[in-house]
Amino acid sequence: MRFFARGMVKNEITAMSKLRLRGFEIHKSYLPQEAQRDLIDALRPVLKAAPLFSPKVPGGGQMSVRMTSAGAFGWYSDAEGYRYAEKHPRGVEWPAIPAPILAIWQDLTGLERQPDCCLINYYGEEARMGLHQDKDEADFSYPVVSVSLGDDGLLRVGGQSRGGRTDSVWLNSGDVVVMGGEARLAYHGVDRIRFRSSRLLPKGGRLNLTLRVVT
Ligand SMILES: O=C(O)CCC(=O)C(=O)O
Predict the structure, then answer these.
(1) pLDDT band at 157 (very low <50, low <70, confident <90, very high)
(2) Dihedral of CA 163/146/94/123: which sign?
(3) Considering only CA atoms, which of 20, 45, 38 is closest in space to residue 169?
(4) Could you tell me if 189 and 132 are in contact, meaning their C-beta atoms sit under 8 angstroms apart?
């Protein structure tokens, strides 16, 4: 039984389905609305303790996505490169990953090993994320689990090298993607969001949580 079964209604149960796109396992409507709201409540103190920031990128410029992290490590980027950091740029430790987020990892991966980073991405109306690989972690045999909350986002996925054919799929609030096996090092990015397509976040936008094993 999943931790969020309380409050599920029939149409939410029937809407759940699993898609596979180039090895990306997409659990549509994995989180019912009440569980999505519970996650937002669990994230509020995290965002207060470790506020969102806009990372700089090595080539100059700034990411349009604002981000922060929970867990022992937080993902960080500046002119010197991409890496994991033990502290938020304000010098404070990253808050712990909230239990309901860890429960998603547990349910979908069944792994004993827990993620040590939950990267929290916030997409405002104009935010995008270019095609990239998640490869700053030590061991790629662990999957990445990615939770979508709020406005719809258009995920683009490719193969393990840059260039070539890509496919796209809209992710809606409550969808969870597992990137393991051939998808673990696949290029992926978010081309755009449908601003105000969801009412989960009072000011609109999209939150994406990615759970990673870093060390
Ligand atoms: O927002 C998403 O769905 C993907 C996020 C992502 O690619 C990342 O954090 O590496």
Answers:
(1) very high
(2) positive
(3) 20
(4) yes
Rounded to the nearest whole angstrom, what is the distance from the C-alpha of residue 77 to the centroid of ligand 1?
Answer: 15
**99 C-alpha vs ligand 1 centroid, how far in Å?**
21
**Three-class DSSP category at 9:** coil
Using the mean position of ligand 1's atoms as its centre, give its distance from the Cα of residue 122 in Å.
Answer: 10
User: pLDDT tens across 170-204, in order?
Assistant: 999 999 999 999 999 999 999 999 999 999 999 99
The pTM (predicted TM-score) of the whole model is: 0.93
pLDDT tens figures, 122-143:
999 999 999 999 999 999 999 9
The answer as to whether 155 is a domain residue is: yes
Domain CATH for 172: 2.60.120.590
Q: Which residues line ligand 1 (CB under 6 A)?
A: 119, 121, 129, 134, 146, 153, 155, 171, 188, 190, 208, 210
- Ligand 1 atom nearest to 155, measured from its CA: 3
CA 146 to ligand 1: nearest atom: 3
Structural domain harbouring 182: 10-44+98-212
Domain count, the chain: 1
